[in-house]
């Protein structure tokens, strides 16, 4: 694509590593507020209403992305700066890793109340019904899935489509997190958001899986075990993408993920992924280290891809 895209993606990744998410006036939070406000007008218990909600918000974001991209067209420094700022805005990998470490710290200190209070920052499960082992498992599964969602996927779409790709992916993923649930309110209205997110993550989840397999030795894991768990178990998962990320992580760590999963809207019985014992605190720390390695590899890969002829 353009040198400015490659450099901007790397700089934006570095900015995320240095400072994490913006502490105030986060654009993604602003998008979420706008989506919630629009939902009050578009909500109906039907799929078509959800399609309209998705098209308006994702389409509007695409228009914004194209407009921002045109501002920098032909001006290397401006284009690079805009790409870097956009990349920083849509990435969440550093915050994910920090939260994973904080969870491990609280579990090691046997601070279950603190660990339960932290869990909603990682996933939507009901923390009140989880013991220390359940919290560790939930955190590992969230680290695995969100390594792809929060970093690998936006970088992949940034490499393929520049600033519009970065912004549109984050809009799609945010809407899925807001309405893409199987509960009574969103089973129909959130269908479009959930399916769009599945499509947007088909390629990134598999990039994340390949990197997890390749980098497993960095945490004492075996690529063959990670690949075996991916090939054997990923298709069991109800998500076509989370199953890839979680099974590859389970194989790399040598643990078993899945089983009964309690959400606020009710329980789900998830298939087991991987082989070995349930994850403990040490495994959570290893998962965070592997996540950071996958994120860095994804950033470098995205930069190379963005320079390749299209």
Give an overview in words.
It is found in: Cell membrane. Keywords: Cell membrane, Cobalamin biosynthesis, Membrane, Transmembrane, Transmembrane helix. It is a multi-pass membrane protein. Pathway: Cofactor biosynthesis; adenosylcobalamin biosynthesis. There is one protein chain. By secondary structure, the protein is mainly alpha-helical. The chain has one domain (3-307). Helices cover 72% and strands 5% of the residues. It has 13 helices and 2 strands, in the order H-H-H-H-H-H-H-H-H-H-H-H-E-E-H. Strands 1-2 form a two-stranded antiparallel sheet. Strand 1 (257-263) and strand 2 form a beta hairpin. Helix 10 (202-215) runs antiparallel to helix 11. It starts with a helix and ends with a helix.
Rg is 19 Å
The span between the termini is: 7 Å
Number of helices: 13
Helix content bin: over 70%
β content, as a range?
A: under 5%
Question: Main sheet, how many strands, which sense, barrel?
Answer: 2 strands, antiparallel
Tally of individual domains: 1
Mean pLDDT: 93
Instruction: Enumerate the strands of the largest sheet in spatial order, edge to edge or round the barrel.
Output: 1-2
* SSE succession: HHHHHHHHHHHHEEH
Shape verdict = globular
Structure summary, number of beta strands: 2
Unreliable stretches covering 5 or more consecutive residues: none
Q: SS-based structural class?
A: mainly alpha
Organism: Nocardia jiangxiensis
Pathway: Cofactor biosynthesis; adenosylcobalamin biosynthesis
Keywords: Cell membrane, Cobalamin biosynthesis, Membrane, Transmembrane, Transmembrane helix
Subcellular location: Cell membrane
């Amino acid at each position: 694509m353009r040198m400015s895209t490659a450099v901007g993606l790397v700089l934006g990744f570095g900015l995320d590593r240095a400072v994490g998410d913006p502490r105030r006036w986060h654009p993604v939070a602003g998008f979420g507020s706008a989506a919630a406000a629009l939902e009050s007008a578009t909500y109906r218990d039907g799929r078509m209403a959800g399609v309209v909600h998705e098209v308006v918000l994702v389409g509007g974001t695409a228009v914004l992305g194209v407009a921002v991209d045109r501002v920098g067209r032909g001006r290397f420094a401006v284009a690079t700066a805009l790409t870097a700022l956009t990349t920083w805005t849509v990435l969440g990998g550093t915050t994910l890793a920090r939260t994973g470490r904080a969870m491990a710290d609280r579990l090691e200190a046997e601070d279950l109340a603190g660990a339960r209070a932290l869990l909603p920052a990682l996933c939507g499960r009901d923390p009140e019904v989880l013991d220390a082992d359940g919290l560790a498992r939930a955190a590992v599964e969230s680290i695995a899935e969100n390594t792809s969602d929060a970093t690998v996927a936006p970088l992949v779409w940034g490499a393929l489509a520049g600033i519009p790709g970065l912004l549109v992916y984050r809009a799609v993923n945010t809407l899925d997190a807001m309405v893409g649930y199987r509960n009574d309110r969103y089973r129909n209205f959130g269908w479009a958001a959930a399916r769009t997110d599945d499509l947007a993550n088909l390629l990134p989840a598999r990039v994340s899986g390949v990197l997890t397999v390749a980098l497993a030795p960095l945490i004492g894991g075996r690529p063959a075990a990670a690949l075996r768990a991916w090939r054997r178990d990923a298709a069991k998962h109800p998500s076509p993408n989370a199953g890839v990320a979680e099974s590859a992580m389970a194989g790399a760590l040598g643990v078993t993920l899945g089983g009964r999963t309690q959400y606020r809207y009710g329980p789900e019985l998830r298939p087991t992924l991987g082989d070995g014992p349930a994850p403990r605190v040490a495994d959570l720390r290893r998962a965070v280290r592997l996540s950071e390695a996958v994120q860095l590899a994804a950033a470098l890969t995205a930069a190379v891809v963005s320079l390749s002829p299209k």
